[in-house]
Known about the structure:
Blueprint: H1 2-20, E1 38-40, E2 47-50, E3 65-71, H2 81-85, E4 92-98, E5 102-105, E6 113-121, E7 127-136, E8 147-152, E9 159-160, E10 162-164, E11 169-174, E12 183-189, E13 194-197, E14 200-201, E15 208-209, E16 215-220, E17 226-235, E18 244-249, E19 256-257, E20 259-261, E21 266-271, E22 280-281, E23 283-286, E24 291-294, E25 297-298, E26 305-306, E27 312-317, E28 323-332, E29 340-345, E30 349-350, E31 360-365, E32 369-370, E33 372-376, E34 382-385, E35 388-390, E36 399-400, E37 407-414, E38 421-430, E39 434-439, E40 442-447, E41 475-482, E42 486-493, E43 502-510, E44 540-545, E45 551-558, E46 569-578, E47 583-590, H3 591-594, E48 601-610, E49 636-646
Parallel strand pairs: 11-17, 21-28, 31-38
Antiparallel strand pairs: 1-2, 2-5, 3-4, 3-6, 6-7, 8-9, 8-12, 10-11, 12-15, 13-14, 13-16, 16-17, 18-19, 18-23, 20-21, 22-26, 24-25, 24-27, 27-28, 29-33, 30-31, 32-36, 34-35, 34-37, 37-38, 39-40, 39-49, 41-42, 42-47, 43-46, 43-48, 44-47, 45-46, 48-49
Amino acid sequence: MVAHHSTACAIIALVLLGACGGDDPETDAAPVVGSRVVLSETTATSTRATWGAATDDVTPSAELEYKVVMSAVAASAIDSVEEAETVVGAGLVRDWTRNLRSVEIVGLTPNTAHYVALLVRDEAGHRALYAPSAVTTAPELSADNRITRFAITSLTPEVVGEIDADASTISVTVPRGTDLTGLVATFTIAEGASARIGSVAQVSGTTANDFSAPVVYTVTSQNGLTRDYTVDVELAPPASEKRLLTFAFESFDPDAVGDIDETAHTVTVFVPGDADLTELAATFTATSSATVRVGDVEQVSGTTTNDFSSDVIYTVVAEDGSEQDYTVSVEQGASSLAALSALTLSRGTLGETFDRNRTEYTATLRSPSLTVTATTFDPGATLEIDGATVASGAASAPITIAHGTPRTITIEVTAPDATTTETYSIVVTHEHPTIVVEAPGGTEAVEDAHWADAEVFTDAVDDAIGRVGDLPPDVSLLRVTNDATNLYVAIYLAGGARKGWNNEAYLLIDTGSTSGATTFTSNPPLPWGDKGFETSITVDFSFHAQGNEAAFAAFTYVDDATAGTGVESMIGADFNSSDGVPFYAEIRIPLSLLGVSAGSTIRLITLQNDWDGMANGEVADVLPDSTAPLTSGESVEMLDQHVSYTIQ
């Protein structure tokens, strides 16, 4: 009985041990992830995720389940089992799927970073995370397969085609006589697109083709869409223009120029009274590709002679065979032709297109003066411009134009008959650009003042440096302007009692150079050439002094603060008006000398100087960034204006 009881207890103990002996740590472990998630075959909207199989101590590998999740925000949004488990909606790429090794992910946003993570679980529900992998999708491929410009550039000038986008056709008309068999086209297609003719890739501006028959260009977009364009190159039809443009007898001195009436198709020419009309050779021009004949005889300009004792019919034959007759009448005696063939200005341009039959014009300029050049239609005619006799084709004397007050310039033409006259007129207005004046308190736009005694800038924009005593700022810019060649600066130096013996001013022009002071030829060297002012240069000065002529010298300036390194280099002029006599000066400086062109901005600084017992003649630092004050006994200089001007 005792033995039986012991055996039973042993069995019960064994059973309890099997049931309660504790968990096996190996069977409780999560799966072991395989090789990392690899993202490949990525396009603008898709990618493929592939990974190595996970393993587990209990669940066979083929029985493991996988879940694929994605984030377009950051990897940190899915870098834990808990975060990956909560992903739903668009971020859930594939829910739990047995034995999954690869999945295609679609619907992605182009050109965007995407993060993909993977969960794996065993039969017991234990989970493990494959670390997130990142990929950036490609930019969206364009479907643009258009040709937006097409031109035959192997011809001079190039011929641009007309594109019909709806019909996908391109029409090009080239000059007659063009060889169509080897033309080179330049075309514009979308970036990443390509073009071919048949199987031959086309390179814009390089590939030659035979256009004697229509040619089909196939354009393929980035995303593979194709579009065919039919290019048709045709020779221009025969020209129909048939005009006689000029007519003259150059055997006379001056030339006997014909007056062509295009409405009546007549030409009237006056020749000397003793001229032999029976054998005159006319010099003429006609429209391009046209020929000229008299009767059945083709005319050669300047060579073929005709009898002009009576009217002669000149026939202009167009390329298409159409004809236009001109009746040429030669009259003996002085010409009554009082007309201009050309009218130009030295500055500014005419507001209206010149035509010999138009007599009234307007012009606007930014300079105080200009010259007018007029050319008579008949070389024997005479001219008066603004009341003064001027030779045909020669420039008039400078004509002053007051600022803001339009002035009418007249050009009177007198025909060779000394009786017939015609008057042309130009109403000229002198305007100035708005310039920017940089003052200590800020920047303000002002219109530069007139060229007049009472209209100089005041010291409202004064930026004095080291001023000693009560010296008013009496130097001012009046005007800054330019034409295609020169910079024009008008400057004023007021008179009055001065503290020292001299009334002196400087104009500095800073072009922003940082490459060192430019070297110019001395003309002659200034005595202080090694003390800030480096060398003198030749500049065109036109002075309008009141009472005496102002002396001047031109130079380059280097900021003393940089110890002559040329980091701040300027071109300038020194004005000297003794005895306190005021003067105006207009300075003309070639733009090439300044090294600037249209669009460049320069800085102009006017300075007033009074030598106050100066012994060594050194020039103080005058740039706006100077911090060293001047003391009595030094050269007193005042920065009166600091102007930024953009070359027009």
